Structure formats: structure tokens, C-alpha cells
Structure to design on (729 residues):
């Protein structure tokens, strides 16, 4: 590993041996968020530290992926065959298995800045070692932690006869931490930058493509080309759909969109697709639900309800599979270019993607190229398709076939010849989506792999410092270029709670327990305020829990916040849109009460009056007093009968049988308060004496067809009861 970069390995264990020889026994290992972890290498490092207490291993990462496990016995029986089918061949992270079993050795420490929501609640090790950090600061904070080894999964391909690696799913932090580590190496820090090849990864372009000497070591053996982690799709509920529908009205044609993972993001994608492909039905439901009557003015001012003509651009830290559906449906189609001159001329509508003599003239006039073309100018013109392929530039002349044209365009004759013989037909290297990382279901990865090279190049994978902020980290992505590209940006993210002052809770609880992490949310909210025409849209389910356990997610105040009140902007619940930016406190409170579940409106209003934050005679308008879940179900019902708003509009990994069981178990879980002994209607369930014929396939799937213990007999009765209650049998 001390020799010329990179050294190639076929064994993760041998690579680990050499890493220890180089950096020593204190290993601060940086691993990418989510999918890009090189699990075999990570496991080899971990097992080595586990076997040798003299090694100190600190893992700096985020979102360590785990197979679904299930909390109750019923959930485990349901998930068992599903997980076996979906994750067969996936190599798990040993440190996560030991963490869950309480067996993480004392010489190993896990530090994460982001986790799957709720996955670490009351897990002491991860709660105590959590690092609260903006995504854009993750690379800096890792360096401050003393990171001396970084490793990630990559894939490889020959491009123009040269071997290239793609950081694929995770260039977002590696692109910044790797060069910073090289600078520290010059100052004497012993470092190692490791790549592990997995050819199941889609080969993504943009900044993700790097040369082999980026890495000190490359581990490459087909034995490690293992199954990727596929995140199962979750169902979209009626509240999700209503929130997505409302958010879709605030997206402006010709604008820019950032979204995150989860059912709310999927619901937004569905709403946008419906707006474009079924516009008449889309407008009809906006009318039937009262959305246009209540929020029409803000929709007209900020967004729109017509089908997309120019289309939108994706600019997002996370590339979710919903973007591919939006590309396919023609919503994401606005072309942008990573050149400030081209982008400005496009925005000003002086040029289009069709190359004409005017295109050439405008670029010269704008100073994009010199009047006497240099070799650099020639490469730029060729790269973006202004010049056609097959031309050569030598000694200040352009060669095209048997004609040599001087590059001095101050002379009209030369310019006329260039226009006549050198121009291309259309601009090249357009970008439809800028993204930092991706994670999703297995079908998403297959869809990326199935794309042509040209299609994949339109998804520009890049640094999180590029997509998550405006400020220039690289002259190639200047603040000016980002502002030009990201016009009418809408940054759409999910949150847990909103206070009546407009502060937002997204990552933690008031007792200090971390739910997930700040991630990029603060970055995007801040960016929305920095852009001249940007807006932040935070989606919040109005209610959590059901029945007596139901509670409002619009609260008077809370002991923890993620987004401070001075950055308040749009908040959306299933009941409507609150436009909070620049509003007085009494207006903010009134708008948030309008989109609060009506079971909690009066109590919150009284608290606001008691605090003297709203006039004592204020009353919630009558049109906002029918905010109940049943109303939403009734409003969507006719459209569901027409085939709209299905639970899994973008596909699912569950079988039809599993969908029925899953729905029944979800209902059953909602009836529980304290395990199996506290189920509503439990007495009725226990009276079941015979197994209905229709229930047998479901019981077989749950391995409860022939229960062999008293516990399994109770579970069998509960499943039959739940299936019956849901009308499935």
C-alpha cells in the first residue's frame, strides 16, 4: 500500500492487514451513508478489532442499513419469508448485529450523524455517540474526529480504453473528504482510501467517475459482487396522499424540485404525475376537496395546477426512485447545463437546446469564448455540442475534413466558415437531475442499470456541498451557476411536529433522544431562503396514533427544534397549506390552526390566547373546522374506485397474499395497547373454534396453519380475527 496507487486485493482481510501496517492500531474508519458501505471490508476491520482488544476502532458513518426484523412474534413470522426472499445474498454489517445483541466490544465505537427514523431510540451506545451535524459538515466533522481510513463500494468500467471507477450511490461526501485527507497526508497523517468493487452497482456519471489513483487500495473479486440492500417500499396512506396532493400544487412549471425518501415523498411524486398525466381528474379532485377554494390564491402565486410544459429539474441530496417515474411521465424534463454562460442564455430565452448561428454569436458576445478561439474554447464548444464531433484544433486552426479554418473569429470570413462547417445540431451533456446519493428498492437499482449510458449521464451524481448549498465549493459549480439552474426551487421535506410559532421538529424528542438526524433538512430550508424565488415546504402528518392514543403533531411548543421559527415557510398537513414566511405571529398561529386536526384545534387556540399571542376574540373559520380523517377518506373514495390512490402506486416487493396479511396485522397492532393481553375484541377472537377455509392460505404463509403451542394458537386466532375484521375473509 506504500507503493504507487492503487494496490489491488482479492481479500478484504489482507487489505485490512496492510491498512493496520500503514495507519496503526487506532483506526478511525469513515464509511458512506446508506448503500455505499463496503460491507465485507467493514466486517473484516470490525472482526479484526473484535479479536484484538489492542486495536481501537471508531466507525464514523450514517444510516447503517439493517434487514427488517419485526418487534412482535407475529411481525417476525410475517417478515421472516419476506426478508429471506428480499435479502438473500445480502451481507449484513457485523457491527450492527452485535450492537443489537448488546455485544459491541469496548474497543469499538459507532458514531453516526443520521439513522433510520426511530431505529436507535433508547439504544444507549448510539444515543450517546450521536453527532448532530448538517450533511454538508459531515466530511469536516469526520476529519475533526481524526478519520484516517475511508472506504466505500464502487463499480468499474472502461471509458475510452481507460479504467474508471464510479462512486455510484455515494459520491456526496467522499468527493470532499478524500482530497482533504490527501492534504493531511502531505502534513504527515497516515491515511488509507479504500474501494471495494461491486458490479451490481449502477455505473453513475457526473462527478462520481474517478480515476484508479483516487484510491490507495482496490478490493476486487467477484465473490464480493453481492446483493445490494433494497429498501422495501412502504404503502401510501390517505393522509400521505392528501399531503402529496397539496404539495404538488406548489411546484412551479419550469422550476426545481428536491424531495426525500418515504411515503410522503412518494405521495408528492404521485401527485405530480397525476397533475401531468391526468390533469382533468387532478383539477377535479382539487375542487371536490375544497383545496382550490381554501388555498387557490397561494397556489396561483407560488405553484400551479396545469400539466407541465417546460417541466422541472431535480436538484436533491437523495435520488429516490420517484424521480425516475417523473422522468418517465415527462414531469422532470427541464434541461440544465453545467456552464454559467449557457445556463444564463437559456434562462433569458436567447438560446434553446437547438444549436444555431445565433447560439454561437450569443456565446461569443457573453464572453463564454474568446474572439480568437483557444484550445480551451474549442474543447468547451465541442463538449457542449456547439461544435460537432470530428473536428480538430491545431496551431490556432480548426480542421474539418479538407478545410482548415483560422480560429480568429474577428475576421468575418473565418466566422462564416466556422458557422457553415463546424456547428453541431443540439446542445450536449444536459442534466435533468443533480443528486448526492441514492437508496431505494431493488427495482430502482435495476431501472438505473437498464438505462442507456446517455440516459444515466443526465443524472449528475455530485458532492453534497454542491446540491445542498449555494455557496461555491468549486469554481465549476459557482453560486451564480447554482442560482441560474435552481430557479423556482421547491425543497420538500418531512418533519415530525410543528409548533404554533412555526418552529419545526424533525430529528429528535424533547428528552434528548435522537429519532433520526438533521441530515440535509436545515441546509435545504436555508437554501430556500437564500434563493430569490425558492421556497421550503415541510410536510407534517397532522396526527400520530389512533383512537385514544391520537395526538396532534401541531403543538403549542416543544422542548426540541430542528428548524428555528425565523426560517419558517410553507407547512403542509393532510388538511391544508400554511404559508408562514414573513407573517406576523398571530397570522402564523391562525394558519397553522387551519390545518390542524379539528379534535385539537380549540385546545391549541386556548393556549395561544392564554399566552396572548392571538386576539382573545379570534375564532377558527368554519371552513377549517371539518378537519377529520373520515372526511378525507370520503373525499378520496370515489377516486380510489376509479383506480387512483392505490396503496402501492409505484410497485411493491410484497406478494398479494402478503399485502392482505400486512394490512390485517397493521390494523391489529393499532388495536393493541400492551401486547397480546390487551387487544380490543380479544375475547371475541378467543371464541374462534374453527379455521375458515378462506383463512388457510394466509395462516400457511404465517406458519400458523398447524400451531404447536398455546402461544401459536392465540396468534392463529388473532390473525383470523384481524383478517375477518378487515373483510379479507
Amino acid at each position: 500500500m506504500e507503493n504507487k496507487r492503487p494496490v489491488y486485493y482479492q481479500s478484504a482481510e489482507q487489505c485490512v492487514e496492510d491498512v493496520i501496517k500503514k495507519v496503526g492500531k487506532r483506526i478511525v474508519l469513515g464509511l458512506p451513508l446508506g448503500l455505499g458501505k463496503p460491507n465485507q471490508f467493514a466486517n473484516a476491520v470490525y472482526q479484526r478489532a473484535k479479536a484484538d482488544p489492542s486495536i481501537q476502532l471508531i466507525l464514523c458513518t450514517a444510516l447503517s442499513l439493517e434487514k427488517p426484523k419485526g418487534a412482535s412474534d407475529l411481525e417476525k413470522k410475517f417478515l421472516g419469508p419476506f426478508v429471506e426472499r428480499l435479502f438473500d445474498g445480502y451481507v449484513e454489517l457485523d457491527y450492527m448485529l452485535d450492537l443489537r445483541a448488546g455485544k459491541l466490544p469496548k474497543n469499538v465505537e459507532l458514531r453516526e450523524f443520521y439513522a433510520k427514523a426511530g431505529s436507535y431510540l433508547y439504544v444507549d451506545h448510539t444515543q450517546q455517540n450521536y453527532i448532530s451535524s448538517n450533511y454538508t459538515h459531515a466530511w469536516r466533522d469526520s476529519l475533526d474526529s481524526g478519520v484516517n481510513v475511508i472506504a466505500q463500494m464502487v463499480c468499474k468500467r472502461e471509458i475510452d480504453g481507460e479504467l474508471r471507477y464510479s462512486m455510484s450511490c455515494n459520491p456526496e461526501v467522499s468527493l470532499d473528504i478524500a482530497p482533504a485527507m490527501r492534504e493531511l497526508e502531505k502534513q504527515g497523517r497516515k491515511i488509507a482510501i479504500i474501494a471495494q468493487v461491486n458490479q451490481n452497482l449502477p455505473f453513475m456519471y457526473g462527478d462520481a467517475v474517478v480515476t484508479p489513483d483516487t484510491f490507495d487500495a482496490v478490493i476486487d473479486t467477484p465473490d464480493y459482487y453481492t446483493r445490494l440492500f433494497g429498501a422495501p417500499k412502504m404503502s401510501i396512506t390517505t393522509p400521505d396522499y392528501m399531503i402529496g396532493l397539496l404539495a404538488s400544487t406548489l411546484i412551479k412549471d419550469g422550476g426545481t424540485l428536491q424531495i426525500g425518501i418515504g411515503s410522503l415523498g412518494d405521495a408528492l411524486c404521485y401527485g405530480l404525475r397525476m397533475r401531468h398525466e391526468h390533469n382533468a381528474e387532478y383539477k377535479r379532485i382539487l375542487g371536490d376537496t375544497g383545496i382550490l377554494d381554501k388555498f387557490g390564491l397561494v397556489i396561483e402565486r407560488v405553484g400551479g395546477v396545469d400539466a407541465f410544459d417546460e417541466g422541472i429539474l431535480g436538484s436533491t441530496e437523495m435520488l429516490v426512485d420517484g424521480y425516475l417515474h417523473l422522468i418517465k411521465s415527462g414531469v422532470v424534463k427541464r434541461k440544465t447545463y453545467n456552464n454559467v454562460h449557457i445556463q444564463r442564455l437559456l434562462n433569458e430565452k436567447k438560446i434553446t437546446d437547438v444549436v444555431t448561428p445565433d447560439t454561437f454569436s450569443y456565446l461569443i458576445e457573453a464572453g463564454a469564448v474568446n474572439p480568437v478561439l483557444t484550445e480551451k474554447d474549442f474543447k468547451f464548444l465541442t463538449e457542449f455540442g456547439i461544435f460537432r464531433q470530428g473536428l480538430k484544433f491545431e496551431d490556432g486552426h480548426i480542421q474539418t475534413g479538407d478545410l482548415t479554418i483560422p480560429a480568429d473569429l474577428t475576421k468575418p470570413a473565418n466566422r462564416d466558415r466556422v458557422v457553415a462547417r463546424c456547428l453541431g445540431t443540439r446542445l450536449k451533456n444536459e442534466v435533468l437531475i443533480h443528486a448526492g446519493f441514492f437508496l431505494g428498492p431493488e427495482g430502482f437499482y435495476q431501472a438505473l442499470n437498464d438505462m442507456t449510458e446517455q440516459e444515466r449521464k443526465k443524472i449528475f451524481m455530485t458532492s453534497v456541498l454542491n446540491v445542498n448549498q449555494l455557496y461555491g465549493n468549486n469554481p465549476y459549480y459557482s453560486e451564480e451557476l447554482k442560482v441560474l439552474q435552481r430557479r423556482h426551487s421547491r425543497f420538500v421535506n418531512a418533519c415530525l411536529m410543528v409548533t404554533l410559532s412555526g418552529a419545526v421538529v424533525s430529528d429528535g424528542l424533547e428528552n434528548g433522544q435522537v429519532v433520526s438526524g438533521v441530515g440535509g433538512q436545515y441546509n435545504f430550508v436555508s437554501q430556500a431562503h437564500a434563493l430569490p424565488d425558492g421556497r421550503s415546504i415541510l410536510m407534517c402528518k397532522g396526527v400520530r396514533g389512533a383512537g385514544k392514543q391520537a395526538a396532534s403533531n401541531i403543538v403549542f411548543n416543544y422542548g426540541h427544534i430542528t428548524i428555528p421559527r425565523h426560517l419558517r415557510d410553507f407547512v403542509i398537513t393532510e388538511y391544508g397549506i400554511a404559508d408562514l414566511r414573513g407573517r406576523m405571529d398571530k397570522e402564523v398561529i391562525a394558519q397553522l390552526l387551519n390545518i390542524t386536526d379539528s379534535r385539537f384545534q380549540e385546545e391549541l387556540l386556548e393556549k395561544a390566547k392564554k399566552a396572548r399571542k392571538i386576539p382573545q376574540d379570534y375564532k377558527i373559520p368554519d371552513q377549517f373546522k371539518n378537519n377529520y380523517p373520515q372526511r378525507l377518506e370520503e373525499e378520496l373514495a370515489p377516486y380510489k374506485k376509479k383506480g387512483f390512490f392505490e396503496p402501492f402506486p409505484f410497485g411493491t416487493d410484497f406478494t398479494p397474499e402478503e399485502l392482505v396479511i400486512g394490512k390485517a396485522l397493521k390494523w391489529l397492532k393499532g388495536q393493541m395497547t400492551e401486547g397480546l393481553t390487551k387487544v380490543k375484541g380479544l375475547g371475541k377472537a378467543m371464541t374462534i373454534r374453527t379455521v375458515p377455509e378462506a383463512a388457510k392460505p394466509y395462516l400457511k404463509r404465517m406458519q400458523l396453519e398447524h400451531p404447536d403451542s398455546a402461544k401459536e394458537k392465540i396468534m392463529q386466532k388473532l390473525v383470523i380475527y384481524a383478517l375477518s375484521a378487515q373483510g379479507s375473509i
Observations:
- The chain has four domains: 7-69+92-224, 238-313+464-624, 340-421, 656-725.
- The first helix runs from residue 12 to 23.
